[in-house]
Design a protein that fits this description.
By secondary structure, the chain is mostly beta strands. It is built from ten helices and 48 strands.
Length: 1006
Amino acid sequence: MNIFSFYKGWPAIPLLLGICLCDFPAHAATINPSAFATVTKKIIPQQQVQVSGTITDGTNPLAGVTISVKGKATAGTISDFNGNYTLTASADDIVVFSFMGFLTITESINGRKTINIQLQEDATQLQEVKINAGYYSVKEKERTGSIARITAKDIETQPVTNVLATMQGRMAGVDIVQDSGSPGGSFTIKIRGKNSLRADGNQPLYIIDGVPYSSETIGSIATSGTAPTLTSPLNSINPSDVESIEVLKDADATAIYGSRGANGVVLITTKKGKAGVTRFSINSSSSFGTVTDTPKLMNTQQYLAMRKQAFVNDGVTVYPSSAYDVNGTWSPNRYTDWQDKLIGGTAKIYTLQGSVSGGSAKTYYLLSGNYRTETTVFPGDFKYTKGSGHFSMHHISDDERFKITFSTNYTSQNNNQPAIDLTAVSRTLAPNAPDLYDSNGALNWENGTWTNPLAGLQSEVESRINDLVANTVLSYRFMPNLEFKTSFGFTDLDNNESRTQPSTMYNPSFGLGSKSSSIATNFTNRSSWIVEPQIHYNMAIRKGRFEALLGSTLQNQRTERLYQFGYGFASNSLIHDLASATTKAVRLSDVTIYKYQALFARLNYTWDSRYILNLTGRRDGSSRFGPGKQFGTFGAVGTAWLFSNEAFLKDNSILSFGKLRASYGITGNDQIGDYQFLDTYISTGNNYQGTIGLQPTRLFNPEFGWESNKKFEIALETGFLKDRIFLTTAYYFNRSSNQLVGAPLPGTTGFSSLYGNLDATVENSGYELTLRTVNLTGEHIEWSTNFNISVNRNKLISFPGLKSSTYANTYVVGEPTSIIKVYHYTGMNSITGVYEFEDINGDGITTALGDRKALADLTPSYFGGLSNQFRYRGVQLDFLFQFVKQEAFGALPGVPGTLVNQLASVADSATQQPYTAGKNGSVITAYYRFGTSDGALQDASYVRLKNISLTYDLPLKLSQGLRCQLYWQGQNLLTFTKYTNGDPEFKFGGYLPPLRVNAVGVKLTF
């Protein structure tokens, strides 16, 4: 059968023209050339060509870009994972390239077969990006709550292993401090200040892919090592697997989490796969870490001059036999920089990451793995290894009604570290102390005249942590505006720690053998499951849009702990075998179960894209409270006015975006541990006439209930010049009351404290400012800047009966809860040269109870960060400066003149008390009082080059599917400060400060 078509080639044109002239002679007479050309163009099919190319943002390929033909609704495609696309169109069609967050570009084909596109970021479109708000997502421009956010592009530029480190200096209102530079060290986080009077009651809630993740420490004091805090589980989160981190701060954002949202919520979303061809990525790097800033100490000449003067001041003419540093036992000509010897090593860090992803539009996946090893700056063969795996899969049914998302993260850590931190001894050891090793290479004990600092390294701490976090989300859309969803979560964490103290850590002259060796162990298992069914509904109402969410939570967490101790072994090689100990003891064995259930809801209405009302509420039930107190209700209201959408500002050329938002609500806190309201008993572990007894540990108190935190915020968001300048200013006012604390009890009661609600109120108020500017944007160059600053003021508003309570010397109404009561330093006595302090109560003597009334507050006055991102062709530079305004205590290693090294500035005796070798009691007493006075406070403010990243994209053809990036990254590189006692960020004396890290690496994608 032959098929003829008038649209197949030019021969049909004369025939068509003839028909038109015969049938319509009148009209034919009026046809002009231009009309004929128009008719011909419509009739003649244009030549079809296949156009292909690659779409990038100048550096990275862009997947998911929509490519369409202008004026043809049915023609179009999207770019794949490599940014590649293929499109069939006419030779003279116009192609439109559009992608969320980027400017839309149009290109005429003009017969070309290859069209490569570079999209430029559109600042105004960033308001269209959806951010994670927990149980729901919301467009940036439509959110009524306060949410800070960083994404993978910010995280990937930092050579760190703890996810909290990636947030430092990048989020307004989020204060993060590193606790230690030792591998596996933890971080302290405060979101908008300190709400609770309890030190352990200020932790935020962590959510990983919708699963609550407990941040409670998993270590014990007996097995802790070189860090000042116990082992944190947050090291299990691999930063390279994180897609975004959102921090919820105000009541509107946190109230939907009810009792657990008082201190903020940290939402961690891991990376997901993308549809497209199978994509592989390999990232390998080597890093080198050294101690940041160390104080300048005395050299041998200065030190010995101080010591000799001290003996002169004490009237000693013959040096004691124990004064080895000055009596000739130790060489006066020896000088050792102990900071260099003991903490001046280089930590070597190696990281290898790999991933594979791909899939169809209906089913896509991501599988990734990470392996990291890190040594220490201490002498010895200590290592921290961490391996992790991440898998994510997403599937959508053909009718797009059913969806399933599965993600899992598994991490295994093995951390072997010394049990002691050599930082303190490196700053106090005499500079002419003996060599570390003798001529035979063994530890040098110098005839028993000193304790070799390396001997402590024989005592080791080993921690093995295995952690699993899994989540499955099932959803079904019954109607276009009605969806049912259920989230299932499971976590399982095992921590096995041990601390050994072998006999080899002692001087051999003591004659101690393996029978004096000991080991302490800690096994902790924490597992939890959670189920959260939810219903989402939305509909259009007149000129507005209504959304509703209703859900419930069922959660169960089980924690098992076993602390054991063993002493006396036949050989030190058996020290890790507890069964080989001659004396064994179980110091703690318990199981706690935490049960939690809740109902939550959200109602949101947006009218005419201008006015937004958001209501959230939650009814919580917790097993941590007694009968009648187990349930609490929390909620919030948030409003927003998008005034830039008003008619009088709709087309304003200066103001491109404007929003005024406010929120008020109540959140709660149940961070008090389990069974605090019950009479509880534990085993004594002691055998009495064949029976192991019980002893009481807690008194019954069913009356205490939830802490409550009332939060208010008002904020203004403005964008100028198409949002190239975007400014957000916010003021917040939070009051936390019904404080849950442990009231101290007299020792005669047999109990140390009794938990209850204290009628005290803590206030946190402050200002936050964030500024984003797009300074340059072009085809080959981009430059943007981000700035944030936070000012928080903490205050104890009320505390009935404070003066007569056990907290009378801890808190002052009207002052911050973090204050320290200190002596008021008035100067040096003009005759004796001894430090003097104000006699507050006028009784003629200086006492802690009567005269420590001056107040010191070590919390930052303000903090923030300034980051810049530059891109020129294949080169990208990112850097972040972090700044903090604060005070801290200076160095107080020991009384000047004793067998303790000092800061080099102490060599100026005119600014010091008279040196003493230990006989001048008044000088010694004044010295230690000075250490707890306002005279010891220093300006510890600093500006730090927190992070820098330089990346070079090798100019390879993306069409070949291979991309190679070379990069250098640095952390804590430069610090500008007046502080004299080492690193100003670090708040714990005698522990290793954060390290300065340089990393070089290569990333291949194909």
